[in-house]
Amino acid sequence: MLFLWIAIFPAVLAVLFYAIYRVFKNDGVETAYDAGASVFTVIAIIIVALGFLVSSGSWYAQIDNFENIKKFEKIEAINRTKAEALTAEFTRHLAETYPKHEKDIFGKISPEQAALYLVKYPELKASETLMNLVERINELQSAVYDQRVATEEALQRTRVRLRNPWLFRFMIPKE
Questions:
Q1: Alpha helices for the chain (secondary structure H)
Q2: Which chain regions cross the lipid bilayer (predicted)?
Q3: Which of 37, 91, 118, 140 could form a disulfide bond with 18, CB atoms 3.0-4.6 angstroms apart?
Q4: Where in the sequence is the domain holding 134, given as residue range(s)?
Q5: 162 touches 170 (CB < 8 A)
């Protein structure tokens, strides 16, 4: 919106010069105020056009951020689903391999808790399968957190763009 406020100054000068030109023309005096009015009119138009150009680029970036947010949320959901599936496999493997821990195992194990079982039961570290499962679960959980961070960063960019005084706000989607 600052582009519009800046464009007001040359527009006012253009109107003023044109008014002076009309006054002097009616008195029969030759002046160059009409040229000044034209120059300031062109300057005002260029400033407004520049504002539209800058806002158009930000419009595209805003749309891109909204699409990325949707993508990040879908990737996060997929990674969460994979982590939950691997956690179920981890639980099943524990139940089959270590039946003496069965009552603890059949409690709800979340992906965040899988590594805790390795600390709670150090003998589980001997199983390469369990170690690989826990490592993969941790990688997926890390990917979920990374997607959350990316989503928040994209949301922050959209909020900043909505507050940017140099952009025409009516052009920036709010979604």
A1: 2-26, 33-97, 102-105, 114-120, 128-163
A2: 6-24, 36-61
A3: 37
A4: 2-171
A5: no
Residues 89, 66: Cα–Cα separation, whole Å: 35
Which pLDDT value is given to residue 168? 81
pLDDT tens-digit readout, 39-74: 888 888 888 888 888 888 888 899 999 999 999 999
Per DSSP, 87 falls in state H
- The set of long-range contacts for 90-93, using a CB threshold of 8 Å and a minimum separation of 24, is 90/114, 90/117, 90/130, 90/133, 90/134, 90/137, 93/127, 93/129, 93/130, 93/133
Q: What's the pLDDT score for residue 39?
A: 86
How many distinct structural domains can be found in the chain? 1
Residue 87 sits at the vertex; the CA angle it makes with 112 and 136, to the nearest 5 degrees, is: 80
Quote the CA–CA distance of 84 and 79 in Å, as a whole number: 9
**What tokens appear for 148 in the block?**
């959350």
pLDDT digits (tens, 9 = 90+) for 75-87: 999 999 998 898 8
